[in-house]
Design a protein that fits this description.
With about 160 residues, this protein is α+β, with helices and mostly antiparallel strands. Helices cover about 40% and strands about 10% of the residues. The protein has a two-stranded antiparallel ribbon with strand order 1-2.
């Protein structure tokens, strides 16, 4: 599903084309918090109803969310994450953590508690060795034409 207009093949560009719009990410936030009904999504995201309906349709078509009938009369749906949707949760947690630290340092709107009883501080780790990933630890190996790598950027 390479739908990128980026001059070179890029999974980040492809993902942003699908979920990089504000209301799509806010829908995912709400669904992860258990607020998957349309009226809840309108209220909690501030999205206009027509835009929200379009975003939901796109997320369902992309198999990030599923929709399930919870009322027959009138017919109403709630949205739940698929496995692919659940795999986006760490991305949102990392975005939230970055925003808490850099944009709302003294006014964090929510704290998430892990099942161990401590506040969650998301961290990217290597699946093989378990070490936390730092910028200088990464070595890019381009596999598609159009990529030029000159080395890591200075921090």
């Amino acid at each position: 599903m390479a739908a990128t207009k980026d001059p070179r093949p890029c999974s980040i560009a492809d993902t942003l084309a699908l979920v990089g719009e504000k209301y799509s990410l806010l829908v995912l936030r709400e669904v992860f918090l258990g607020n998957g009904r349309f009226d809840q999504l309108v209220r909690n995201t501030g999205a206009p109803r027509d835009i929200l309906a379009t975003r939901l349709r796109r997320l369902v078509d992309a198999r990030i969310l599923t929709k399930r009938v919870y009322s027959e009369r009138p017919q109403r749906f709630e949205y739940r994450p698929t496995q692919a949707g659940l795999e986006l949760q760490p991305v949102l947690l990392t975005l939230m953590d970055w925003g808490d630290r850099h944009l709302r340092e003294d006014d964090r709107p929510m704290i998430l508690e892990h099942s161990c009883g401590h506040e969650l501080v998301p961290q990217v780790t290597c699946r093989s060795c378990g070490d936390a990933v730092q910028h200088g630890d990464l070595t890019p190996h381009p596999r598609s034409p159009g990529w030029t790598v000159t080395g890591p950027t200075a921090t």
